[in-house]
Design brief:
Distance between the termini: 47 Å
Number of strands: 0
Number of helices: 7
CATH superfamily of the largest domain: Uncharacterised protein YqeY/AIM41, N-terminal domain
CATH architecture of the largest domain: Orthogonal Bundle
Helix content: over 70%
Shape: globular
Largest sheet: none
CATH class of the largest domain: Mainly Alpha
Order of helices and strands: HHHHHHH
Number of domains: 2
Oligomer: single chain
């Protein structure tokens, strides 16, 4: 019974955090409307729409990690578009995409620095007593569970690979 109460309490905390993120997004949409900031308004509406689409696809309210993941996908899409615009010689459109990246990134938690990730990887390897590349997945899974969507899987993977191959 006590464990079930803890789970419900934890679920309520996660829901509060998610509600706070969504409330902030909605409030910022209203502020952008009032200040007639068309660029910011368009980006925030698009992000809200993307979140709603994912929520409909998953058939349950989004949790904090899912919201962060969707926002990271939005940033990634804009980075790719920006790179393509630069290659195509359209620096004006690339700058527009960079502005959108900045707006969306302001809602994301600050990612760990490479040095912090390195320290966390070393700790995880020691905790799990990982010795070989065969245990790479176990280390990455541990780190993903610990930090969720706030870490970049590619960077974590490369650091773990580097440390375990020594």
């Amino acid at each position: 019974m006590l464990q079930k109460e803890k789970q419900l309490s934890k679920l309520a905390e996660v829901r509060d955090t998610v509600d706070k993120m969504l409330d902030k997004l909605k409030k910022d949409i209203v502020i952008a409307q009032k200040s007639k900031d068309k660029d910011k308004l368009a980006v925030l509406r698009y992000v809200k729409s993307a979140l709603k689409n994912v929520e409909i696809d998953l058939k349950h309210p989004l949790n904090n990690d899912e919201i962060i993941k969707v926002m990271q996908q939005q940033v990634k899409q804009r980075k790719q578009a920006s790179e393509l615009y630069i290659r195509g010689g359209r620096n004006d459109l690339a700058q527009h995409e960079q502005k959108e990246i900045e707006i969306i990134s302001s809602y994301l938690p600050k990612p760990l620095t490479e040095e912090e990730m390195l320290n966390e990887v070393i700790k995880a390897i020691k905790e799990l007593d990982a010795q070989s590349m065969k245990e790479m997945g176990k280390v990455i899974k541990h780190l993903k569970e610990k930090f969720g969507a706030s870490v970049d899987g590619k960077i974590i993977s490369s650091i773990v690979k580097e440390k375990l191959s020594k």
